[in-house]
Amino acid sequence: MNFAPLLTFPLLFLVQFSQAQMVAIEDEALSEYTGQAFITIDEPDPIVQDTTTYKYTRINLGMDIETILTQDEVKLGVYDDPRDITGTGVDIHMTDLGLGTYFNPHDYFQVDSNGDIVYGSDGLPKPDSSRFPINPKTGQQFTAADAGAPMPFQIKDPYVEFAFKEENGVQSLAGMRVGYGGAKGVMTSNMLSMTGNQDVIISDTAKALGTQNPEGFFGFLLKYVSPLLLGDSTLATRAVLQQGPNDPNPGQKLDYRATHIGVEDGYKFVTKAQDVGVFNWFLLKTSMDLFAPPETGAETVCTTRNSLGSCTGGDINLYTNGCELVGMDTCFPLTKYQSIDVGNGDFARGMFLGIQAEDVPWRTDVFVSDNITDPTVPGEYVEGVMTAAQGFYMNIPTGGIQLDLKEATTYGLPRHSTRYTDASLGLF
């Protein structure tokens, strides 16, 4: 049966008895109205590289999005490529992908003095209420009674952008991407292969060295003596996508089909030993000079002195070698980090997923700090240029991922709850 006449007739009836007329609005009255188009189109400034010019067209979608979604498996860019040194065969491969979570108190667990997870008699991690996040609906901190409340992944100002390559008077489509002006929330997955950028800031206190297991006599000094002398001094470094221990160049930065993340080969752990005192600084410097293995590149840099000119504190730098530092692993499989808090409670800028026919430069917000020389310096977002590799490429902003030393090296980031409470099973 054709229901169209039944649906159309009431509409015609309403239209027949409605009356409307276009009426001009005076300028004074018009000035009281403001508005913005739902969709706008921009042409960002072109980027010139040698004889090639890249021009862009961006379609902005004026909306805010909140979502909770899951996908069993995502494979993007499945093809053979000689650049594939890890052998994954896929640009981006994730299983159990989730954007957004449901609040589960056990996801925010207690840790003991050694940085280890504390478990209750029920075998579940004990909740630490001080770590509970802010409820996006109420603006108040979650409580245990809020178990099961949705925590959507939030997106601001999404856009679609096209890059056109212009060379010798000929223009061709070089790539496109979907990006977000801001993104906040927990992204969960088992990341098996990653092409893109996923920088991480690792920051803790020197006391956390006592939770690690470095080797040799110098390792003994790091684990048992350094925490006593350094106390709450800041310890920090930076982790990037990299080649794993079984790849051709372990620890070397890799943005194509990476399976590991960690401290880049030759990059440093810096400890800001400020104002530790003349005696403590003397002991620290002497220990470094006498006992640090050459491959650590250990160095001490005095930054504070007393009125007599004696050094009272400074920076202590140790450099990674391949995938280790004094016997400690510094390269870790991506699957170890199953819950990424994008934005770390705030909106991270610059997140995008692109597909490129060749390496393409994109204008994007980049989280910049002096972390090339000092990862402890706070950063800020600035407009920059990021070159996305040929194929599928995902950028997860640096400022959104911060770990302490135990999270980075030991238990990682366990998967957060991505489904609502099942009362019959007591599970998330």
From TrEMBL:
<feature type="signal peptide">
    <location>
        <begin position="1"/>
        <end position="20"/>
    </location>
</feature>
<keyword id="KW-0732">Signal</keyword>
<protein>
    <submittedName>
        <fullName>Uncharacterized protein</fullName>
    </submittedName>
</protein>
